[in-house]
Every structure is written in structure tokens, then in C-alpha cells.
Write a structure and sequence with these properties.
The complex is a heterodimer of chains A (about 120) and B (about 300). Chain A has about 120 residues and is an alpha/beta fold. In chain A, about 35% of the residues lie in helices and about 15% in strands. Chain A is globular, with a radius of gyration of 12 Å. In chain A, about 50% of the residues are buried. The two termini of chain B are about 55 Å apart. Classes of the chains: A alpha/beta (about 120), B alpha+beta (about 300).
Chain lengths: ~120, ~300
């Protein structure tokens, strides 16, 4: 499934990286701990988090994730937006809680399995 | 300084540029046949060969002389120039160039030095064409080489060279978190290393970098790339680790709450580093700083994933 379809289905607002929405999403991971994401997320995953500081971009870039979904209506910090644009990492926001966002993603077939 | 062309003129040999497919005539060939030979092959002269050996050379001028003299039944052998100037195949091109300049001849026969047999003919045109071709090949090889610049390690590793790069990490500055590890990742990628290897080193570098930022006033990350392995050395003069065994356990963290609120201090840093590397050595004591030596082995030797 492409990131663009997820944006459409979950009615996400795209804050950065709208040129990279054709990326294929291979699964998802949810965590607010950087090292945990580094240890367990896989390439191509969409990452659900409430962290909005620029280190989320560093982690997403490092792990080559498809994109980041911020929950609870949280907006990325200015520095995060700048860094995400320069690294071409899509950041999308949703007013829903992490629980609901993840539930809907799962309903679309985006799972946490890493094959 | 000498130019590339001048260098080639000394380097290349006559037999590298000469024409091997030579039209020859025999001493007993009738002069009347020459008109056909010259016209058909579009040449203005031909070596005269007997038993593969060069015995003379016959040119259009000789042919015209013969026509002018109106001698009917002559053979090439009686009209040819027997005092033939020739070059040996193994002579450097520079000899040929000076012989052309001195003699004013349009061509030289080329003879094999050991067998004495005629092996070809060389003209000024052959020299120019040969040099151009060689220059083109050299240029092409240079192009290919430039393409391979990203694979520079293939060449360097062959002679056992070590490539080092070092980064300074500013302590307590979360805004620059991941900066050094991003640069390391880009540098290793640029060297054309295996993507999986690059990812593993980048992960370890990131965790080490964040440790420097969270716990110390700064430190350095040095990456050493050599045959079959990459070593990352992380050095700081921070608080040091009291219990290294404990620090390696997943979930164990001494990070303050505000750091945890940012999503760091999950107690996974050293654990992640150990997991993605082939070897992790921690040297540390309270108040004496910390030194990590992280080793990654390339290809089959690696056991980490």
C-alpha cells in the first residue's frame, strides 16, 4: 500500500515530504522511544508517535522509514519540519489518538510484522 | 613536463600502429601489372617480397619512370629501389617520427628484427591514428575509473589502506542529534559499501551519538574503514558507567526524566549497539569517561544482523 492511500483513507494532513507519498508502506511501528524504534521498526514502515522534535526525522531517516504519523493533533516543531523537508521524510498529522490511528492502519492491512 | 602524446610516442612501438595487411608484389611481377595493383588498392607504392623477406620497394614514381622509358617487358625486380629504408617492429614510434621527418618518405616497411620478415607498413597516418586510438582508450579507462570512484575502497583495500574519519559531538545539544551519524552514513554509502553494513554502522553511531549528547559534555566518534571491517571508536570524558553489565541490559537507563520525555533514555542504546555490531568493547569507570570500540565485520565474517 502506498503512503498516499493511507493519507487518503485516514484523512491525514501532510506537513512535509508530500513529494514522497508514492512510497510503498511495508508495515507499521508505534513507539515514542527512539532507541525502541531503531531496534524494532523496519525499512518502509510507517511510524506512529507523539514525539514532535527533530530527532524523529533522524531516526526515520536512519531506519529508512516510509513516513511518520503524529497523533493527538500534535504538530511537528519548526526545526522538525525543516529537517524533514531536507531529508525528504513525510510527516503527517492526525487528530486521533495513537490507538485509533493504529487501529485504522491495521484495518487497511498495515501490520507490525516484519516478515 | 612532457605531454601525454609525447609520452606515448616513446612508449608505443611501431608494430602497435602499423598496417599489417600489406599489399606486396614479387620481384617477378610484371611492371604492367602495377597500374592495376596501385589503382585497385589505392596505394602509391608497395614492398617487394621474396620468401617473406623484404627485397625492395616499388613506387608510383618507379612506375612512371618505367612508362617514360617505354621498356615493355620489365619486371618489378629490375625497377624497384633495393636500398630500402625500413623500421623494425619493436622500435619506438619516436624513431619512426624522426625517420619520416629526415627522409621525407611517405611510408616505411616494417621488418621483424629476429626473423627478418616483412610484417607490415607504417605511414604518418598510421602513427596519428594509432596515437589517437590509444589516447581514446586511456581516456575511456579514466572515465570508467571515475565511475568507480565511489568504489574507491576496492582499490584502496587491495593495498591494505585504512580510511579514517572523525566527528565531534556537542554534548546536551539535542538539536544536532543524529547529525554525525547521518554524515557517517552518507560517507559510508558514498564509498559504495554494502547497504546492510552501512545501516548497522549508522545505527550504532546514532545510539553512541545520542549517548554523548544525553550523558556527556561532548565527545568524538572516529570511524575506521579497512579491509573486511569497520571500527567505530566513541570517546568521551563524561561521568562514566558504574555497572557495565547493567548498562547493557535492555530497559536499564540512568537518563533523567526530561530526556525520557523526548523519547530518549529508553535503556536500549548500548543494547542496540551490541546487537547490530560484531563486537563491542566498553572501557569505562565512574568519573573517567567512556570509550566504546565497536567492530563490524563485512560479508561472511559477520554474525550480527
Amino acid at each position: 500500500m502506498k503512503l498516499a492511500e493511507i493519507v487518503e483513507e485516514l484523512d491525514l494532513k501532510v506537513r512535509t515530504g508530500d513529494g514522497a507519498l508514492e512510497r510503498e508502506v511495508t508495515g507499521g511501528y508505534a513507539s515514542d522511544l527512539m532507541s525502541d524504534v531503531i531496534a524494532h521498526a523496519a525499512t518502509g514502515h510507517v511510524w506512529v508517535t507523539l514525539q514532535i522534535h527533530q530527532n524523529v526525522v533522524a531516526v526515520a531517516s536512519l531506519k529508512e522509514l516510509a513516513g511518520i504519523v503524529l497523533v493527538n493533533g500534535r504538530e511537528p516543531e519548526e526545526a522538525t519540519v525543516e529537517r524533514a523537508e531536507s531529508e525528504n521524510i513525510p510527516i503527517m498529522v492526525s487528530p486521533l489518538t495513537a490507538f485509533d490511528v493504529i487501529g485504522r492502519l491495521y484495518g487497511l492491512g498495515v501490520t507490525g510484522s516484519t516478515d | 613536463m612532457i605531454t601525454k602524446t609525447q609520452e606515448l610516442v616513446y612508449e608505443m612501438k611501431v608494430d602497435q600502429v602499423m598496417t599489417r595487411d600489406v599489399v606486396t608484389v614479387r620481384p617477378e611481377t610484371p611492371m604492367s601489372r602495377l597500374r592495376e595493383v596501385f589503382r585497385e588498392k589505392r596505394i602509391s607504392g608497395a614492398p617487394v617480397v621474396e620468401d617473406e623477406r623484404l627485397v625492395g620497394i616499388i613506387s608510383v614514381e618507379d612506375f612512371i619512370e618505367w612508362l617514360h622509358a617505354r621498356e615493355e617487358n620489365s619486371v618489378v625486380g629490375s625497377k624497384m629501389t633495393t636500398d630500402v629504408d625500413f623500421l623494425f617492429g619493436d622500435e619506438p614510434l619516436v624513431h619512426a617520427v624522426s625517420r619520416f621527418a629526415d627522409s621525407g618518405f611517405g611510408r616505411f616497411a616494417v621488418v621483424d628484427r629476429t626473423s627478418g620478415k616483412l610484417v607490415g607498413v607504417i605511414t604518418k597516418g598510421d602513427i596519428v591514428a594509432g596515437l589517437l586510438k590509444k589516447l581514446e582508450i586511456d581516456y575511456h579507462e579514466e572515465e570508467v575509473h571515475r565511475d568507480r570512484a565511489s568504489r574507491i575502497l576496492d582499490d584502496i583495500l587491495a593495498v591494505g589502506t585504512t580510511l579514517c574519519f572523525q566527528y565531534e559531538v556537542e554534548g546536551r545539544n539535542f538539536d544536532r542529534g543524529g547529525e554525525s551519524s547521518s554524515r557517517i552514513k552518507r560517507a559510508l554509502k558514498g564509498l559504495g559499501l554494502d547497504p546492510d553494513m552501512v545501516r548497522r554502522v549508522a545505527i550504532a553511531a546514532y545510539e553512541a551519538e545520542m549517548n554523548l549528547i544525553v550523558f556527556t559534555d561532548g565527545g568524538s566518534i572516529a570511524v575506521r574503514v579497512e579491509r573486511g571491517r569497520i571500527t567505530v571508536e566513541v570517546t568521551d570524558s563524561g561521568p562514566g558507567i558504574a555497572d557495565i553489565e547493567k548498562a547493557l541490559q535492555p530497559g536499564f537507563s540512568t537518563a533523567p526524566q526530561w530526556v525520557r520525555d523526548l523519547g530518549f533514555g529508553a535503556g536500549m542504546g548500548l543494547y542496540n549497539i551490541r546487537n547490530c555490531s560484531d563486537d563491542l568493547i566498553i572501557e569505562s569507570a565512574p568519573g573517567e569517561g567512556t570509550q566504546l570500540t565497536i567492530t563490524f565485520l563485512m560479508g561472511d565474517e559477520s554474525e550480527a544482523g
